[in-house]
Write a structure and sequence with these properties.
Yope Regulator, Chain: A; six-stranded antiparallel beta sheet; about 35% strand; globular
Length: about 150
């Protein structure tokens, strides 16, 4: 059981699941991992103090042409482990909105590598639900316009 992991240990667990894991450490020693699954490019943000981090956040960005606040609220009410956040940005005024998809994994009390691997698999399995929550209305709208 581990209460902390290095960025390389997390990257290796992602690779063990069959996905790329590109590690970036900036000048402030903040660590990130870039990966992708099923065409979705996502990141893992390491939290705590380098080199032994005590939690991670998975993050993915979606784009919406309509204000997604109601879709985010409904999704967050329906799903416990994955959350959607509307990102307020200057671009929103121009008709573009962003949604940050996020899931955390805390190592407090100790977790096994198997548990972290299971969390990686859960993240990948849940991403299509987040995409559907934001893009389903857009897809329906496009279908009705093309009929």
């Amino acid at each position: 059981m581990n209460e902390s992991f290095t960025v390389e240990e997390i990257a290796e667990l992602i690779r063990d699941e069959g996905y790329k894991a590109l590690v970036t450490i900036d000048e402030d020693e903040d660590a990130f991992i870039s990966s992708a699954s099923d065409g979705a490019e996502w990141d893992v943000v390491m939290h705590g103090f380098s080199p032994f981090f005590d939690s991670i956040s998975f993050r993915y960005l979606l784009f919406s042409e309509t204000d997604p606040i109601e879709d985010c609220n409904k999704f967050n009410n329906d799903y416990r482990f994955l959350k959607l956040y509307r990102v307020v940005d200057e671009e929103a005024v121009k008709g573009k909105f962003f949604v940050r998809v996020e899931m955390d994994c805390d190592f407090a009390g100790g977790v096994s590598k198997l548990m972290v691997s299971a969390t990686i698999r859960r993240w990948i399995a849940l991403l299509p639900l987040a995409e559907d929550a934001i893009y389903a209305k857009l897809s329906s709208k496009l279908e009705s316009e093309n009929q």
